[in-house]
Each structure stands twice: as C-alpha cells, then as structure tokens.
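User
Here is a favour to ask of a fellow structure person. I am asking you to supply a protein in sequence and structure-token form. Please set it down just below, with no commentary around it:

Assistant
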Amino acid sequence: MKFIISILAFGLLLSCGTKVEIEKINTFTEKYPFNYIGLVGEQSDTAYVEVFFSEASTNNSNVISHRWVKLPAIIGGGYTNVIFDSLVKKITGSMSKTTIMPIGRVAHISYLDNGSHFMKIINHSLKPIQYFIVGNHDLKTYDLDKLFSGPYTEVGDSHKTPPTSITTDLLPEVFYNGTPVKYLLFPNLKPKTNLYKIHKDAIYSKNGKEYYGFNGIDTLFFENNRSGNLIVNSAWSIENILSLYQAEYRNSVDTVLTITYLNKNDNITVNRISNGAEKYYSETRQNILKPSYYGVIPAGSSIISSEKIPFITHVKYEYYNDKP
C-alpha cells in the first residue's frame, strides 16, 4: 500500500534535492460569470446610477455595455471572456525521472476599460448608495466513481461511504446559513436535489488502482423548498439581502457570511468575508487587502472593480482537471 499526500510528498522531494518547476502548458479563453451586485438607495422616478461593464462578445473578446438603473436593483450576472493559463508542476528526481502534476488555472486579470474584470458604477445622486456582491460562479460537481476505484477501506478504519458518488466541488460564494446567497435571491436557480461534500484526507494507491479516502461527509440540503438550513418559499428582497451584509460587516454574532461552505470543524472567523477571507484552491486564505463584498458609494462618486472590490469572481482558485 502506498499512502500519497501531496504536501508530505512535496517535502520529501525537496529534501532529496528534487527539482520542482511550475510550467504553463496551455492558454485558453473561457466565458466566466460576473458576480451579481445589489444596489440600494433612495427610490426615484429617474435613474441616477450609471453602470459600465465588460461583457462577452464574439471571437473571445469583450465589449463595454452601458446602462442607467433605478434602485433598488440587481446588476451583473452576465459573462465576460477571461484568458487562463493551465499550470502543471514538473518534478524531476535524482534519476532524471520527471513526474507532471496538474496544479490549476490562473486568470489573466484585467481591470482596465474593456478588460475582462472591468465594471464601473457611478452614483449621480445627492445621497450615498449601498452595494453588496453575491458570488455567481457555476455550480460544479463530480462523480467519484469515474475518478477513483472507490472508497478506501481497511479493517478497523473509520472511512465512510458517501450516500451517492455525485459530490459537489464548488458552489457560488458567498454563504449564509448553509446556502449560497445567490439561491436566496434566485431560488429557481438552486439545485433540485441534495448535494454532498466530502472532506478528503488523501488519495490512496493499492494494487495499481487509486482510491479516495475521507473522514467526513456533509449533506447540503436543496430538495423541495430547502436551501441549506433555510426554508425558502420565495425570493428574498434586495433589501433583506443587504441587511445580511450590513450585519456581517458589523461583525454580528448571529448573522455570519462566509466565503465558502463551512462544516462543524471549520473556523468561522477565518472564513468570514468581513475578515478578508478568500478562496484559494482547496483552502481559505486571508487577503490583506480584505476584498469588500459590501460598501457605500458616496453621493457624486464612483467605484471601479479591483482586487479589493471583486465585481467578478476571483478565478485563480479554479481547478485544472476540467481542461486539457
């Protein structure tokens, strides 16, 4: 039996003088979703908020779209063409044998006019308005039975068999009470059946086959009118969603918004969006810039997308294995 854990293996390779290189093997363009942005301010018969944003066009390019909107409003939700690099890790040992391991995709991020991540919101009124950002990347699932030979089990171990082989990989950020906020705004877009999230501890190799091992399974409830831990019979109002973000950025004890789905062992403080939590591959990191998913646009002012204002989902944590 061979027990493979990438972190331990990487450390052993370095100690043996192994050469490790990161290499780009492919560049591709893909349509990627803009987040939804909620705007709340004084109601008026005249639209006083002006929006410019990049939108996917033909030939893998983008065009600038321009709109005037009345408040309250939800904007965004479209697609923009993003250029990605596919990266691999080349590991060359002392015997000159090279192993190639997929790492992930990295986006070419551009906040310039007509760039893939460009959005500008101008408040032409005499009063401030508030905004909040709701993640919109696509739901991704995978079939364990197609990737591995089955669950890794030996006599006396504690590994469990999931109730289904279809497990969730990614769900739209941000989360509240066990569900993406996106599904509170748009319950018609949520999954129709429950999803399962496994907590892998390793990939095992035995008798020439690979098996998955994990120490926990979470059920994400979406059947009928369930959405996480909530019963959602109709779409939440923009104002109700705004109140969640206001509470989060006041460091509320009762209302907590996180960057990813949490299980009982996850650290809530580390994952709170108001603390700068950012999803990065399979882990959560703290971004010192503290990306702001909620804020105020003063009267007569504007804001533009940036690493601090993620109007488009940060794409650097996307997985490699769905591209050649």
In short: The chain is about 10% helix and 40% strand.
